[in-house]
Structure formats: structure tokens, C-alpha cells
Write a structure and sequence with these properties.
By secondary structure, the protein is α/β, with parallel strands linked by helices. The termini are far apart.
């Protein structure tokens, strides 16, 4: 078995300034990886660095992955990288019933969760070693869609199709995705507002696991995909049994 070393590996985490990406950054830094967290807001990246603490191997990069020229420049300036992860998602305004959906909100979801990953693979693959990996984040909506969630369900499903195709095209680089269930992250502030906690508590009572997820649960799953050299083209479900209920 070929060992995938994390200590000393260069890892780019897009969406690393909060939630699942931030939890992953902390875990990989603790293992000795050289981590760059990337996102659109330099202010949020700086806040994430303060939250993570004093890690000399932590860097930041402000980039909008929906803009091709910015993604191209990101890899042109960064040089070789061992692993790429994206947890980025802009779903503001997307959870609406069909008559109320605005195309601009749909475009933001597509750009952050499909075009962005596509561009990361397009420009990042050439900078990855044969033992490198790219890991994306889809979601339970592709399997348990609900009213108001048609756009997110469709984009998650499209991303998973992209993962399978890229795993073939970019081999031996490994391409995978984690599909989280309901996870207590800041994104719920925009989805549910003041009803966030009540909404999450109600789902916790339904799930076989008896709780909703935490960012660390997803970080653990991504860490597996990054480090397992025999897993590619796979969607790893981390959703507390949500697909069963």
C-alpha cells in the first residue's frame, strides 16, 4: 500500500474560513500539513486565522472560484500543491419555492458549487502529483430533496456526476466528494434565520444518529478521502442516516 503522507503536504482548502473547511484546516494543521485557506473575503480569512491560532504553516488566499481568471492566477502563483479541497457554497436566496426563485440566486449556487469546482480541477490538476487528490462537497439535498430545495438538489447531483467523470479523466489523481447531511454551520443562519436551532433540533430527532452533524464530522470524512489512496470517484455520505428516513 502506498502511504499518503499528510505531514508536510501542501493542502488548499477553498471555503476554509468557516464551518467544515475551517474544521478541516485545524485538523490538517495539527497533523503538520501546510494549509492555505481560500475564500472571497480577506476579512473573513483573517478572522479564521485568528480563530485557528498561531500556525506557522497556515496561509491565506483571497479568490473567487467562480471567476476563471482568478482561479488560473491562484495556481499560477501558488505552484505545486498536493491536495485540493472545496467546501465553498453560496446558497443565499436559493431556498425558495419555484415561483419565488430569482435567477441570480440560482447562478450563485451553480457558480460556487459547480463552476468553481470545475475550474479548480481544470487549473489545479496540472499542479498535483500522481498521488494527489481533489475533494468536493455535495450534500443530502441530492438524495432527500424538499420543497424550496430544488436548486441545491440539482447542483449537488450535477457535482457528483462531475466527480465520477473527472476521476476517470484525471486519473491517477483521485477525485471524490463528501455528501454531508444537516450540519450545524453558519450557513444555517441564512437558510433558517432565527429558527435555526429549532430546525436543527427537529431534524436531530428524526435521524438514526440522534443528532445533526458538526463540522468536525465532515472534516474527518474529508481527511479519509485525502489520505486513502484507493478511493476515487466516490461519494462518501456523512449524514447520520438521513437517507434512511
Amino acid at each position: 500500500m502506498t502511504e499518503i503522507r499528510i505531514e508536510g503536504a501542501k493542502v488548499l482548502i477553498v471555503g476554509g474560513s468557516s464551518g467544515m473547511g475551517l474544521a478541516l484546516a485545524r485538523r490538517l494543521l495539527d497533523e503538520g500539513a501546510l494549509v492555505t485557506i481560500a475564500g472571497r473575503s480577506q476579512e473573513r480569512l483573517a478572522a479564521a486565522c485568528r480563530q485557528l491560532g498561531d500556525y506557522p504553516k497556515l496561509g491565506t488566499c483571497a479568490v473567487d472560484i467562480s471567476r476563471e481568471e482568478e482561479v488560473a492566477a491562484l495556481f499560477r502563483d501558488s505552484g505545486p500543491v498536493d491536495h485540493i479541497v472545496s467546501t465553498a457554497a453560496d446558497i443565499e436566496g436559493a431556498y425558495q419555492l419555484l415561483p419565488a426563485i430569482e435567477l441570480a440566486a440560482v447562478q450563485r449556487v451553480v457558480e460556487s458549487k459547480f463552476y468553481g469546482p470545475l475550474l479548480l480541477a481544470k487549473y489545479g490538476a496540472a499542479h498535483l502529483p500522481p498521488l494527489g487528490s481533489i475533494t468536493f462537497t455535495s450534500g443530502i439535498a441530492a438524495y432527500r430533496p424538499a420543497a424550496r430545495g430544488s436548486v441545491v438538489a440539482a447542483v449537488n447531483a450535477a457535482l457528483e456526476g462531475l466527480v465520477r467523470a473527472l476521476a476517470v479523466e484525471l486519473a491517477p489523481i483521485r477525485i471524490n466528494a463528501v455528501s454531508p447531511g444537516w450540519v450545524d454551520t453558519p450557513i444555517w443562519n441564512s437558510v433558517a434565520g432565527d429558527a435555526k436551532q429549532a430546525t436543527l433540533d427537529a431534524m436531530a430527532q428524526r435521524l438514526p444518529a440522534g443528532r445533526v452533524g458538526q463540522p468536525e464530522d465532515i472534516a474527518d470524512a474529508i481527511r479519509f478521502l485525502v489520505g486513502n489512496g484507493f478511493t476515487t470517484g466516490t461519494i462518501l455520505h456523512v449524514e447520520g442516516g438521513h437517507r434512511l428516513v
